[in-house]
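hey so i finally got around to running both of the ones u sent me last week. sorry it took forever, my laptop kept dying halfway thru and i had to restart like 3 times lol. anyway pasting them below in the order u listed, first the sequence line then the structure token line for each. didnt double check formatting much so if smth looks off just lmk and ill redo it

first one:
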Amino acid sequence: MSVEPPEIAPPREEPPSRARWPQIGDIIPNHDGYRPPASDLFVGFQARFGGTIDASIHCTRGNCEWTELGRASVLEYEAFSLGERLFLIDAMQVASPARSLTLLLDLAHLRALVVDVTFPAPQIAQSGMLARIAETGSQSAVKVRYRQGRIGEGEAPPFRRTTALVGKHVRYTYSDTHLYDHYYLSDRYYAWFCRQGPDRNLGDFEECDYWQVGPRMYLVSWREKLLPCVGILVENHLSMTATGKICGVDAYTGQAANTRVGAHIKVIADTLAD
């Protein structure tokens, strides 16, 4: 079904009047207008992960137990089917919302990719960017770690990083009120611009990672520097949809927020195409 994006209003010439950059609680509402329904296929699912993950998971309805280094954590989760036996599980710690896990499970090839996100305390989130770069090498105060391995015993082909999206301008329509443009600039950076929504007429240049997860399917993970926020979405360039999550913390209060999102996407231009 073809979905027409909302009419785009011309940008204002003047800068935003607010002196405060929008926080996670301002931006996440209504990013789920085109999110697919959650899957219940993982109720009762148990698996042991090898490789660099070295953990196990046991899912019930609504919660899962994640055991790592001998310690078990209870996480609230939702699972989404991405097709071709590929699933995304988004989980947040119940006891400590300062950590978020996103699992990409490829059951056809028995492999997994875990995106492990740790949110900063307010004093870190408000620190100067140059100091963060000197200390960690990253512009963002959010820590993101990628781990991958096999599901169960035996060998599994690893997921690979990709440059297939570099040069593309992709428009995200999250809902009838939220419209963003993505510009994939290099294998490390992308830029975004909000055309409709709470960030309207704002944009920035951020760090971004790209993984090939299937035929014309890519996991895109960006982390922002002004807002301690992470987006983790799988772009399907066959169905022209994106499914995943946006999460982060308020830089002033430290309050965490996590939302599962979905969007219709459209390639506006490919600047590197032949």
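and the second one:
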Amino acid sequence: MANKEFEKLQTENKNIIKGFQQEWSFCPVYFFYSNNYLDIKKNQFKNAFKDINQTPLNNSEKENLKDNFLIAYFGENPGSVSFDALVLTTKELKQLHNPTPRYVRTYNGLWFIKRKLKKTIRILQNKIHAYWLRKK
């Protein structure tokens, strides 16, 4: 049973990576597993990777990331109202301030509606793109 759960999680992670590679073009996106979060928070990117093949970041990419990144994750929104979302946070996993885009609901757990992974990613990118256009 544990092996089935592990395989399910691996498939889910691969789908997230594929989804970002297919839908996201606003800026570079790199990936890491949550058990490596403390290293990422300290700007240690040895366990960060670029794609489904887990291609490591080159030195230039690592240098450009130092203190210059946000973290996105699928899970519970950290705000006062709890719901599942694709959440965008600081590297300390703190919620961004309005009017910066902070999340896109996935509607996971609602039996009557659920947003597809790729659409969720696309919506977040559109929100961020619109935000940056307004700031210019």
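quick thing i noticed on the 2nd:
The first helix runs from residue 2 to 23.
anyway thats it, ttyl
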